[in-house]
Amino acid sequence: MKRNYNILTIALIAFACNAGKADHSSKKNAQQQVNKTDTTRLVNFPKTHIYIKLPNGYQWSDAATGFYRDADGGIIKYDEFKTMRYAAQMPVEETGNTLVNQKAVTISGYSGIIKTYENGSTGKKLILSFGDNTFMDFIEASYFTNSTAAEEEILKALQTIKKIN
Asked: What pLDDT does 2 receive?
C-alpha cells in the first residue's frame, strides 16, 4: 500500500513539473509569435499583457508610471484604474477635458475607440479603449504641445498595440 502511495506521489510530481514546463513554453511561444508577426521592436507595459511600438524618445518612468518623453512632456501609460473599474462593472469616468475627436479602430483584432481631448490651451489627451465582451483595456496618452506631429506619432503608436494572453 505504501509503495502504491509513493508511486502515485512521484507520478503527480512529474505531472506537475511537466505542466509547469508546458505553461512556460506556451508563454515563450506567444512572445516568439509577437516577434514573428511584428518586425518592429515592441515594448511591454510592465505587469500587463500589452505591448507597443513607442515613438522615438519615450522611455519608461516609474515617476510617471508610464513611458515618458522629456521633449514635450508626453506620457503613454496603461490606465489600470479604468481597466479595474470596467472589470468590476463600475462606470469608467471620462476626463473633464473637451472631446474634440473620436475614431473607431481595431487593436490586435479587438474593436476599440480613440478619443482625443483638449487639455487646456497647450495640451492634448488621447484615450484608447479596446476589448470585447470579456475585457476592456485602456491606454492614455498626453502631451503638452500643439504639435500635430506629436499627436500623429502617438496615434500611430497606439495602433501598434498587441495584446498577448
From this structure: 52
* C-alpha cell at position 139: 491606454
Q: Which residues contact 164 (CB under 8 A, 6 or more apart)?
A: 30, 31, 34, 49, 50, 51
Longest dimension (CA), the chain: 79
Which DSSP state fits 95?
P
pTM for the structure as a whole: 0.72
pLDDT tens string 147-161: 788 889 999 999 999
> Do the Cβ atoms of 152 and 74 come closer than 8 Å?
no
Distance of alpha carbon 89 from alpha carbon 152, whole angstroms: 32
Residue indicated by cell numbers 505591448? 51
- C-beta of residue 101 within 8 angstroms of C-beta of residue 113: no
The closest of 26, 24, 21, 62 to 45, measured between CA atoms, is 62
C-alpha distance from residue 20 to each of 17, 29, 32, 94, 119 (Å):
5, 14, 18, 41, 47
> Can you tell me the distance from the alpha carbon of 121 to that of 87, in angstroms, rounded to the nearest whole number?
33
